[in-house]
Amino acid sequence: MRISPLPPLPCLIAFEAAMRHGSFTRAAAELHLTQSAISRQVAQLEQFLGKKLFVREPRALRLTVSGQRYAEVVQRLLVGCAEATEDVMKRKGHTELSVACSSGVAVLWLTPRLARFRAAHPDIHLRLVVNDSLAAMSGAEFDIGLYYLREGPPPAFAARRLYDEEVFPVCTPGYLRGRSLAPADLVDETLLVLEDAQRNWMSWESWLGQNGLPDARPNHRVVANQYPILLQLAIEGHGIVLAWRHMIDACLRDGLLVRATEASATLGGGYYAVWPRERAEPAAARAFRQWLVQQSGIDARAGDRSADS
Question: How does pLDDT run across 114-172, given as a tens digit for each residue?
């Protein structure tokens, strides 16, 4: 029996990406196409269906009622197709696990600890997926992830909180030259700043505002769009960067960095284990999630001991 009617697959992929990002431009960047190509494919799909899927607003896309209903089904089908494809492609006799995280988590927290997990689970073959935006990812791209979230996970994902957020400035011991800084002193130092597009994390403006300086205007800044670059600049002595407890612990323990001030701040966020809500959890993902929970407990106890010492 012929399956009909079926729209062109590229049109469905373009529609799903545009729906997820709320933007033809960002969908085009993800799919390595032009913005006009995404727009044409969505228009072709709308013509095929005889229904408008989006309301085109000046700065965003908004799903119509028909678009919302169609999006739920299309995303579920595409995710299922991707999962089935991945299962077929996996090497026989091996258990593979795709772990997603941001670049900062990958460099600072995950890679130093992976040897422990691999030693406990030598039969699991790991694949790391580094993407700074969980919202830009689909459930077909990874089995489990570790992400900083301010308000909990997107609807497509389940989550378990591992660490509460605590943010404080750090720099090299040599940069301070024996000084002890108050928050107000930081305004005259070189601050290493994550650019505006990455503001899911705390900004210097928010940190200073929480420490009694809502109108502070730093005099010297170095800006980058990736946190590991800023951290390396701090290690090289170029300035002061905001750091997240637990993510930065190894650098503090090894003496590469020290706290620039005892003050700290939080937006109420935290680090979470996240996984696709609609998928059956593979045994490897369950083992990794249990390991993440175990590691967070070890880190919390180590932090308590450090605070008492």
Answer: 999 999 999 898 999 998 888 888 888 899 999 999 887 888 899 999 999 999 999 99
Residue 69 pLDDT? 93
Contact 246, 299 (CB under 8 A): yes
- The single-letter code of the amino acid at 234 is A
Enumerate residues 6+ apart whose C-beta is below 8 A from 18: 24, 27, 38, 42, 54, 61
Strand order across the 220-224 sheet: 220-224, 190-194, 240-244, 167-171, 258-259
Location of structure tokens 């502070």: 216
Pairing verdict, β 190-194 and 240-244: parallel
For 272, the token pair is: 């979470």
pTM of the model: 0.65
User: Strands 61-63 and 54-56, how do they pair?
Assistant: antiparallel
Q: Which two tokens stand for residue 94?
A: 């091996």
- Cα 115 to Cα 128: distance, rounded to the nearest angstrom: 14
Distance CA 233, CA 240 (A): 9
Q: What is the pLDDT of residues 226-255, one digit of tens each?
A: 888 999 999 999 999 999 988 888 899 999
Q: Which amino acid is at 268?
A: G
The SS3 assignment for 31 reads helix
Tell me the longest C-alpha to C-alpha distance in the chain: 79
